[in-house]
Amino acid sequence: MQRIVMVGSGHLAHALWEGWNRTPIDAVVDVVARSTAHRHLWDGAYWDRAVSFEPARVAGADVVVLTVKPKDMEETLARIQPYLDESAIVISPVAGWTMDRIRSLGVGHPLVRIMPNVCAAVGASTTLAAFSGLTAEAEERVLALLRQFGTVTVIEESLMDPYTALLGSGPAYIFLLLEALIAGGEKLGADAERTRDLVSRMVEGAARLARDRSDDPLSDWISMVASPGGTTEALLQVLEQGGWPTMIQDAVVAASQRAEQLGEVR
């Protein structure tokens, strides 16, 4: 049985933990926390049993996952390195931190850079992965763990920052859209709880159609829904007048640029 230690106990760590606990896996998952700030996220019994504040907890781990903020990476690596087993696989979902930068701080272990998102909690993350220094068998072991979060795509690391903006940050765009739709429904007298369920299903359906009919331009589907002079046309006119399509593109670019900035050596 593998032993996984997550270093960091925040929202992403908790989402990954939930993803691994959806179905049985051949692994034990422990956590090294910096403080009790996120204790409220976790099952109390699990926190008391499996969460430690000592970096030495990573000793003996087969896999170490660095679920910390970018600004805390250098300190975190310095604290845990003396205790890492030579064969330990180090996995980093930390935005902006390249594997070369991690190696520059003396980490010679097999490295995996990943970009999951919070949807891992329900097995619906679109997770990206890039490998360095792993055997084929070790890569497959890691992929099996990552598939617990949802789909996994192996990419070149150079694409990680752009896809961080699209996929790592992406759920926030959708949650903002859902929040706006729910608020719009309330203005029309619709029940918020029911609207949340219905518009969530609508987004799932639209996403499935976009994926399953990938040969069809999305603009064609927009035209199919937007009958001339109809309700959808009225909606789209308001969004276009507000610059919504361009605003989304600018937001993605800003997120990618921020990912690059987070990885800059200071």
TrEMBL record:
Catalytic activity: L-proline + NAD(+) = (S)-1-pyrroline-5-carboxylate + NADH + 2 H(+); L-proline + NADP(+) = (S)-1-pyrroline-5-carboxylate + NADPH + 2 H(+)
Tagged with keyword Transport: no
Example of a GO MF term: pyrroline-5-carboxylate reductase activity
Pathway named in the protein's UniProt entry: Amino-acid biosynthesis; L-proline biosynthesis; L-proline from L-glutamate 5-semialdehyde: step 1/1
Domain Pyrroline-5-carboxylate reductase catalytic N-terminal: 3-96
Key word Cytoplasm present: yes
Signal peptide range in chain numbering: none
Annotated EC: 1.5.1.2
Domain Pyrroline-5-carboxylate reductase dimerisation: 157-262
GO cellular component, one term: cytoplasm
Keywords in alphabetical order: Amino-acid biosynthesis, Cytoplasm, NADP, Oxidoreductase, Proline biosynthesis
Location relative to the cell: Cytoplasm
One example of a Gene Ontology biological process annotation: L-proline biosynthetic process
Source domain of life: Bacteria
PANTHER family tied to this protein: PYRROLINE-5-CARBOXYLATE REDUCTASE, PYRROLINE-5-CARBOXYLATE REDUCTASE 3
The family this protein is said to belong to: Belongs to the pyrroline-5-carboxylate reductase family.
Free-text function comment from the UniProt entry: Catalyzes the reduction of 1-pyrroline-5-carboxylate (PCA) to L-proline.
UniProt-recorded name of the protein: Pyrroline-5-carboxylate reductase
Natural source organism: Sulfobacillus harzensis
